Amino acid sequence: MDSPIWAEVPAADRSAVDSLIHEDHRLAAVKRLREAFPVDSRPGLYDALDVVAERYRELGRRFERYPTPPLNLPALTEKVNALPGRAVAIEALWDGDTDGWCVDLTALTDDPAAEHRLAIIRHGSDMRLFNGSVPPWPEAQEASTVGRALAEHLGVPFHFASPDEPDLDAPRWRTTS
Fold it and tell me: Are residues 132 and 96 in the same domain?
């Protein structure tokens, strides 16, 4: 690795960063890398991210997230049937983290009234926004297709208030029903 930043990292910190990368703890690796330097000479966040991304590649790891495997209707049905309470709706909702946008597929139950995550659907990082590969959002399309089929199979409503674009403030099923 030809990074001048990495060249200045002490061996013990290099080992710790690489260990975090092997455990796929990207943010912890960035934090450890930055903390290897005195406060007044720490690399910036973006520079540290670049170094960690390069370490991922050199260690044969993938820095970008893999898409989640396609959802399986029988397995989801089993998950719902194992929940406490009776399913009253299936809902898809947007969520996001440092990797980008994803869709949570959830089952809502009564007695007790609760929300249970069945799956997280992710089809890539937000780099897709910059290279023009979204919209459409494939995770939303999969959530709609599988969520609707699961809801139909269970005889309950399906709700996805914002299938066309990420929206953390979209109305929820319990507030619209």
Answer: yes
Bridge partner residues of 152 (DSSP): none
Instruction: Name 46's Cβ contacts closer than 8 Å, sequence gap at least 6.
Output: none
Q: Is 163 helix (H, G, I), strand (E, B) or coil?
A: coil
Which DSSP symbol is given to 100?
E
Distance CA 126, CA 98 (A): 9
Q: Are residues 150 and 88 in the same domain?
A: yes
51 shares its domain with 91 = no
Query: Is this model's pTM higher than 0.70 or not?
Result: no
At 74-93, the pLDDT tens digits run: 999 999 999 998 999 999 99
**Residue 40 DSSP code:** G
Question: Under a CB-based contact definition with an 8 Å cutoff, are residues 173 and 157 in contact?
Answer: yes
Order of strands across the sheet with 114-121?
Answer: 114-121, 100-110, 86-97, 158-159
Cα(52)–Cα(30) distance, rounded to whole angstroms?
A: 6
Provide the residue range defining the domain that includes 27. 4-58
Q: Would 121 be classed as within a structural domain? A: yes
Indicate the pLDDT class of residue 64, thresholds 50, 70 and 90: low
